[in-house]
C-alpha cells in the first residue's frame, strides 16, 4: 500500500509531523521501517524524514561524545576518536547494514537486534528527543522502558561521557553466525575504577528482555569492590536476576538464562 | 495517491521515473527501470542479493526508500561489465565456480566490488567480512572467497 513520504529540512517540523500522526514513522537508515513496509505493515501510512545536517553530526572531541541520531555504524567505524565503540559497531550486520543502520534507529530495534543500544545503556547515555511540545533529554534506561510510547517523538542525538580508560568499557555479543547474525545475547559493562574499587558499575544486557536492560543485581555485586575472582563470581551468579528473555529461532529463554552468567564471567575476567 | 518524480544516475546514465510513496529502490530498479540484476531475496536486509552501490557505498536496495536516491549515483551489476567484456570479478567467479544457482551472485559481486574499490589487495579475512551480509545456499562460501581473492591478485582491468 503506498504511503505518504514527508521530508523536512528542520527537525522541529519533522517532530511536529511525527507527533501529530499516530500512523507516522520516522525513516532513518531504513533497516526497520522499510522492512516493515516490505512486509505490508499497514499501521504505517506516513513516513517522515529530516534532512537536517545536525542529525548526522558527530562530536567526539571532548570528554562527552554526542552522536546524531542519523550517524551510521560505518561512520563510527571510520572515526578514530570513537575507537571505544568500534566493537559494538562492528558486531552489527554486514557492510551494507552498517552503511545504512543508524544509532537512533538502533534504539527501536527489537530482539535479537539493538546491540549498539546495549553499549549505550552501559555507558549511561542520554537520549535527546524533540516532541510536539519541545525538546528534552531522557536517560536511556527511562527511554527504553517507555519505548513503545516513543514512536511519536523524534530522536535527535545520543550522548555519553567518554569512558576514562579503554579497559573500563567491555562488550561482548554472542551470535551463532560469525561475523554477522542476530544476537543470542549481548553484554556490555562499564566499570570505572577509583583506586582499586569499582565506582558506578553498569552492566547492560540485550535479548534478555523485550528491550535492553540493566543487570542491577550484577551491578550491586560489583559496586565498591575490586574486580577479583570472588566479585566476578558474585556478579555472574546475579546476572540472570530480573531478566525476562523470550524464545526465538536463535535460542530459547531457558538457554539465554543458562548462559548469561557464563558470558558475564568471561566478559569481566577478560576471557575471549 | 500522487506519484513522486525521481531522477538519479543509473550506471552512469541519467534516468527519471515516477514512484509511489514507500516504493523501495529494488522495485524501482526492476519494475520501472527494467534492470533485473538486483534480485529480491528476503525483503528484510538479511540475504544481500539486492545489494547495489549508492555513491560508491554498498546498500541494500530493498531497504532503501527510492526517493532517497534523488540526484545520487546508483550502480548495479548491470553496469560493471564493459560491453561484451566481463568485469574481472565476473571472470574470476566463472573461473572459480563461484556461482551455482546464481541467485546470490549479483549481491556477492557488488559486495566484492565495494571491497576492491577501496582495498584492491584484501586479505582473506577482509573478503569474508566484506561478503558477511550476503547469503549463499549452494556453492558454499569458499569458491566465492577464492574468486574475489583471484580477481584482486589478477589485477583489475577497470575500476
UniProtKB/TrEMBL annotation, chain B:
Keywords from the UniProt entry: 2Fe-2S, Iron, Iron-sulfur, Metal-binding, Oxidoreductase
GO molecular function annotation: 2 iron, 2 sulfur cluster binding; anaerobic carbon-monoxide dehydrogenase activity; carbon-monoxide oxygenase activity; metal ion binding
The enzyme's E.C. designation: 1.2.5.3, 1.2.7.4
Residues of the 2Fe-2S ferredoxin-type domain: 4-80
Top-level EC class as recorded in UniProt: oxidoreductase
Gene3D superfamilies: 3.10.20.30, [2Fe-2S]-binding domain
Pfam families, sorted: Fer2 (PF00111), Fer2_2 (PF01799)
Name of protein: Carbon-monoxide dehydrogenase small subunit
Amino acid at each position: 500500500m503506498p504511503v505518504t513520504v514527508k521530508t523536512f529540512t528542520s527537525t522541529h517540523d519533522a517532530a511536529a509531523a511525527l507527533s501529530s500522526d499516530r500512523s507516522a514513522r520516522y525513516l532513518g537508515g531504513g533497516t526497520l521501517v522499510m522492512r516493515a513496509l516490505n512486509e505490508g505493515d499497514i499501521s504505517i501510512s506516513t513516513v517522515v524524514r529530516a534532512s537536517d545536517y545536525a542529525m548526522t553530526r558527530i562530536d567526539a572531541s571532548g570528554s562527552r561524545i554526542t552522536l546524531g541520531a542519523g550517524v551510521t555504524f560505518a561512520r563510527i567505524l571510520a572515526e578514530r576518536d570513537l575507537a571505544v565503540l568500534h566493537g559494538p559497531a562492528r558486531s552489527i550486520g554486514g557492510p551494507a547494514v552498517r552503511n545504512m543502520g543508524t544509532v537512533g534507529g538502533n534504539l527501536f530495534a527489537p530482539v535479537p537486534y539493538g546491540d549498539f543500544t546495549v553499549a549505550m545503556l552501559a555507558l549511561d547515555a542520554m537520549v535527546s528527543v524533540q516532541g510536539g511540545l519541545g525538546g528534552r533529554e531522557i536517560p536511556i534506561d527511562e527511554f527504553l522502558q517507555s519505548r513503545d510510547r516513543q514512536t511519536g517523538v523524534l530522536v535527535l542525538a545520543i550522548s555519553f561521557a567518554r569512558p576514562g580508560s579503554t579497559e573500563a568499557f567491555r562488550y561482548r555479543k554472542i551470535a551463532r553466525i560469525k561475523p554477522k547474525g542476530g544476537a543470542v545475547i549481548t553484554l556490555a559493562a562499564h566499570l570505572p575504577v577509583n583506586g582499586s574499587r569499582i565506582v558506578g558499575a553498569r552492566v547492560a544486557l540485550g535479548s534478555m528482555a523485550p528491550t535492553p536492560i540493566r543487570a542491577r543485581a550484577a551491578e550491586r555485586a560489583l559496586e565498591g569492590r575490586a574486580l577479583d575472582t570472588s566479585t566476578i563470581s558474585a556478579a555472574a551468579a546475579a546476572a540472570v536476576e530480573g531478566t525476562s528473555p523470550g524464545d526465538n529461532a536463535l535460542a530459547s529463554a531457558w538457554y539465554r538464562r543458562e548462559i548469561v552468567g557464563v558470558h558475564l564471567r568471561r566478559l569481566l575476567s577478560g576471557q575471549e | 495517491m500522487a506519484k513522486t518524480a525521481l531522477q538519479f544516475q543509473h550506471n552512469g546514465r541519467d534516468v527519471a521515473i515516477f514512484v509511489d510513496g514507500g516504493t523501495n529502490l529494488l522495485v524501482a530498479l526492476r519494475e520501472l527501470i527494467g534492470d533485473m540484476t538486483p534480485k529480491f531475496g528476503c525483503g528484510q536486509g538479511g540475504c544481500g542479493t539486492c545489494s547495489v552501490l549508492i555513491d560508491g557505498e554498498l546498500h541494500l536496495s530493498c531497504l532503501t526508500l527510492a526517493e532517497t536516491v534523488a540526484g545520487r549515483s546508483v550502480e548495479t551489476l548491470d553496469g560493471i561489465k564493459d560491453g561484451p567484456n566481463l568485469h574481472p570479478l565476473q571472470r574470476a567467479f566463472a573461473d572459480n565456480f563461484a556461482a551455482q544457482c546464481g541467485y546470490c551472485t549479483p549481491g556477492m559481486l557488488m559486495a566484492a566490488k565495494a571491497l576492491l574499490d577501496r582495498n584492491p589487495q584484501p586479505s582473506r579475512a577482509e573478503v569474508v567480512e566484506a561478503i558477511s551480509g550476503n547469503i549463499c545456499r549452494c556453492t558454499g562460501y569458499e569458491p566465492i572467497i577464492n574468486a574475489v581473492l583471484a580477481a584482486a591478485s589478477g589485477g583489475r582491468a577497470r575500476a
